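fyi for ur records
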Amino acid sequence: MISLKWRHADLRRWQTGLTILGILLVAAYLGLHPRRMFLALPVGILGGAFILWHPSLGLGLLIVAALAVRLEIYTGTEVLLNPASLLVPALLVLWVADMLRRRALHLAPSRTNKPLFFFLLAGLLSILVGNAFWDPAVPRPGNMTIVQLAQWAIFAFSAGVCWLMGNLVTSEAVLQRLTWTFLLLAGGLAILRVLPVSAPIIVSATTGAVDRAPFWALLAAIAGGQLLFNRELSDTRRLYLCAVLAAVLYYAFIDQRQTASNWIGVAAVAGTLIWLRFPRVRVMVVILGLVLSPFLLPRLYEFGGGEAEWEESGGSRLVLIGRVVEVTMHNPITGLGPASYRPYAGMEPLSYQRAFWVNPQINSHNNYVDLFAHVGLLGLGVFVWLIGELGHLGWRMGQRLRTGFLAGYVHGMLALLAASLVLMAFADWILPFVYNIGFPGFQASLLVWLFLGGLIAIDQWQQLEDPG
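which gave:
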C-alpha cells in the first residue's frame, strides 16, 4: 500500500515537472521565434472555451471586432479579409460544437430558416451550373473558384450571423446587453466622428465600417426606435440617444452629404419610423407628399449633387448595369455564378460619353443587379422571399409590442429593413460584391444581418409565452 501511494505521488510529481518543463520550452521557443500565429493560438483557444461557456459574449465580441479591430489580412488576391469576417465562421463552429455536445443539433423554428437555407443552396447551384456551362470564349481566371467561394462565403456568413443572433440570444436581458453594447460603442464613435478634433483619430483607429452607409442606417434605426417607442428609457439614456441621432444627422446630411447612400439610408429609416409611430398622420403625410413633390423633388435632386453628380456617377452606373444585365442573360435562371460576371463583362470595351475603357473592371454598384448576376432569377426570388418573411415577422410582432425595449427594437428593425432595401439600389451595401465593397464592407453589413436576427430570437420568446 505504501509503495502504491509512493508511486502515485511520484507520478504526480513527474507529471507536474514535465508540464512545467513543457511550458518553459514553449515560452523559450516563442521568445526566440515570436510569431503572431503562435501568440494568438492560446488566446484563441481560451477565448473559444469562454465563448462555449457564455455563447452570447461571442456576439458582443463580433460587434467590437466589426467596428474597432482595424486589421486587413491579405490573401494574395483582390479579396481582403479582416478579424470580424474570420470571427463569424469561428463562432458558427463553436455554436455547432456546443449543440453537438448538448445533443441538440437544430435551429430555432422560424419561417426565415427555409429562405435562408435555400438562398445558400441557390448560390452553390449557381457555382456548379456557371462552371459547367462557362463560355469557352471567356478567359477563366485561375483563382476563379476561390473568388466564387469567397462570394458565397459572404452570403453564408450573412445568414450565419442572422442564425447566431436568433439562436444564441435566449432572453430579453441578453438582447438588451448586446443592443446597448452596440449603441454605446457605435454611438460614441459616431459622436467622435463628427467632431473636428477627434474625427481624424476615429478614421485612423476604427474599421471602415464606421464610414459605410449601413452603419449609419443601423445606428439611426436602433437609436430612433428606442427613442420613439420605448417610454421606459431613463432621462440619461434618452439624452444620450438624442446626441447619437444628432451626430447621425450631421454626418449624413452635412458632413458627408456628397455620398447619397448616407443620407438616403438615414432618411429611409426616419420616414419608416415616423410612419410606424404615428399611424394617424399617414394619410396627411401622403397628401402632403403628393402636393409638395413638384417642389421637393427638384431640391432633393440638387441636394444630392444635381446634374454634376449625375454626369459623374448616375449615368455611368446605368451603363455598368446595362452591361452586367446583358452578359447575365446568357443564363438568367441561375446566373453566371457568384462573382463570375466580371470576366464576362470585361470581354468588350466599354464607353461612356468621352471615356473609353479597353479592359473594363466592372461592378454594377447595385445589389439587385449583382444578385441577378450571381444567382439568377432563382436566387433573387428566394432573396425576395427572405425579405418578405423578415418583414412579416417584424410587422406581426410590432402589432403586439407597443412600448418598451422590445417595441423599440422591433420597429427599429422594420425601419432598418426598409432602409436596407433602398440602399441595395445604390451599391452592394447589404450583400457586398467581393471585387467592390467586399469583406471590408462586410464589417458593416454583418451588423445589419446580426440585428435582424434579433427578430428571430424575439419570436421564439413570444411563442413560448403564448403557444397558441
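Residues 56-104+116-465 form one domain. thats all i got for now
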